Amino acid sequence: MEAGDVKAVVGLADGCELMGALTRFPDAGLARGVVDGSVHGDAMGCAADMTASSGEQWEGMQAACEGFGVSEDDEVAVCDSLRRAWSLLYARQGSGVAIFPYESAFIHVRMGAHGAPALFRTALTLRVERAMREAHALPVDAGTEPCDSAWNEWSFLARLLGNEAAALMAGDGESAALWRDRAASFTREHAGQWLPDFLARTEEELSRLAAAGGVDRTAERFYGALAAYGRFLLTVLTERAA
Fold first, then answer.
1. Is the pTM of this model over 0.85?
2. N or C terminus: fewer CB in 10 A for the chain?
3. Which Gene3D superfamilies did the record assign (predicted)?
């Protein structure tokens, strides 16, 4: 992706914003988008803006994104299915949290550190907060929800990329470079340090849950597609950050 490719930057920003929405706890709006095909359409539209609509990579994206759609039209059932899977993957159960959806906590567990991970005011969380604050993009719920969640970090990247695209369209190359550098730094220092493993762990745990009958086919396909789509975006972000 070239620095001045506005369409590609907009597509990447929109893709990150979509991932921010898809990784949050599912609501009725998400279920509606899965049922009516808009989630699938948005994902493919963003991908089309970022890459040639042909070739092996495009075919792989088409196959992966099929999981964002369902054959049934019962929005309530789809919402219940996705909520159950999300809770089993990312929320506390009797045996603990399978996968922490927060950067600091996830890395704490990955390192094998002793004790339960802290969710607020860790050095890592504070660095994420500082980056967001400096970009005037601190989440409104930062006082009650850790700002280093997967959904907040995807949304933050979307904000940085959106600002880069706006600067490019305004012909302000200096400002565009500043926002591009901020997105690259955040990718190198934060998102790229844990989101690839977070998505891999999601696939692993999803496979285990599906084998045990803990999630249905709708949820298995959806969260499998989410992991594949996130990897695609992270590949593009990492290439830009190199």
1. yes
2. C
3. TorD-like
